[in-house]
C-alpha cells in the first residue's frame, strides 16, 4: 500500500481527513464521522512505509526524534496537508485535504448579512465555534468575496494553511505561522506596516494578539479572526478576558460582528449545513459591551431584537433549518437550548 492510494480513496469518499496510527486501520473522516478502512490494522513498519513513499528521509528522521512537522503533498489535482508526529514512540500522521476551490457565500447558503459584512472597511469580525465547525471555510469565503469584488491588500496569518487564496481584484499574501513568521504577534507587527486593508488572524489567543488586532481595526483595517468557543457569549467572554478595562472600550468601538457556527448533518444526508448565531455591533450592543452588560441572556435578547438587521440566536437558526427541512427533528432537538420551542411532529 502507498500513501497516494489512500489519498485517492480520500477523494473518492469525499473525506476531509485521514488518520494513520499503529494498531488501527487507516481512518477517514467523512461528514464529521470517523470511518475506518477495512482491516488489517497498521503495524509500525506499515506507517513508516506509507510515509516513506512521499517524505524525504531527513523529514522522517525529524519525526523519529520526536519533532512534529507539517508538509504539503500533491496528488493528481488535489493538495493535502500532512501532519507527522510520534505516538508512544511510533510514527503517526493526520492528513487533511485542502479544497481545490473556495466555496462562495451563496454556495454555502449563508445568511445575506455575511455578504453585507464583507463590505465593511474597518473593524473586527470574529468567527467562533468548536473545532471542525467550518469557521475557517466561512472566513475564507468572506475573504474571497472581498477578493472578487474590490481592490484591497489582503494579508492572512494562519497556522496551519487550509486554503490557497489566489489574487483576483485584490492582492493576497498568505503567511504561515511557524514557517514564514515566528508568531502571530510578530506577524501582526510586520503586517501593520505593510499597507494592509484586510487582515485575517488565524486565532486570537493572547492578550498581545487581541490588542494588536483591535488597534489595527481602529486604525482603519478590516480584521477577521477566530476563536474556539461554542457561543457568541462564550467568545465575547473569552475576548474580554484577554483585554484590560481600558481596551474593552476599544472593543466596543471597533467590533463589527461575532458569529458562532455549528455544522449539522443535513436531513437528506447530503453533507452538512452551517447554522449561525449572529451578533452585530449596533449602538445597543456597543453600549452593552462598554457597560459590561454581556451576560448570555442579555446578548440573546439583543440578538432576538435585532433580527431585522440580520442578527439571530442559534436556537432561531436551528428552528429555521428545521422548518425548512434542512435538518431532522432529532438533530434540532439535540442542539437546541430551549427544547420547548421545537414544534411537535
User: How would the global form be characterised?
Assistant: globular
Q: What's the N-to-C terminus distance?
A: 49 Å
> Quaternary status of these chains?
single chain
CATH class of the largest domain: Alpha Beta
Total strand count, please?
13
Helicity level: 25-40%
- CATH homologous superfamily classification of the largest domain: P-loop containing nucleotide triphosphate hydrolases
Tell me the radius of gyration.
21 Å
The succession of helices and strands, N to C, reads: HEEEHHEEEHEHEEHEHEHHEEHHHH
Strand residues, percent:
15-25%
List unreliable stretches of 5+ residues: none
Question: Largest beta sheet: what is the strand line-up?
Answer: 9-8-10-11-7-12-13
**Main sheet makeup:** 7 strands, mixed
How many DSSP H or I helices? Answer: 13
Structural class: alpha/beta
Structural description of this entry:
This protein is of the alpha/beta class and 345 residues long. It has two domains: 3-98, Beta-Lactamase; 113-341, Rossmann fold. Helix content is 36%, strand content 25%. The strands form two sheets. It has a seven-stranded mixed beta sheet with strand order 9-8-10-11-7-12-13, sandwiched between helices. Strands 3-2-1-6-5-4 form a six-stranded antiparallel beta sheet. Helix 6 runs parallel beside helix 7, helix 7 (207-218) crosses helix 9 (245-254) and helix 9 (245-254) runs antiparallel to helix 10. The protein is globular and about 60 Å long.
Q: Brief description of this entry?
A:
The chain has 345 residues and is of the alpha/beta class. It has helices at residues 3-13, 44-52, 57-64, 113-117, 135-149, 184-191, 207-218, 232-241, 245-254, 283-291, 296-305, 314-323, 329-335; strands at residues 17-20, 27-30, 33-36, 69-75, 78-87, 90-98, 123-128, 153-158, 171-176, 198-201, 222-227, 255-265, 272-280.
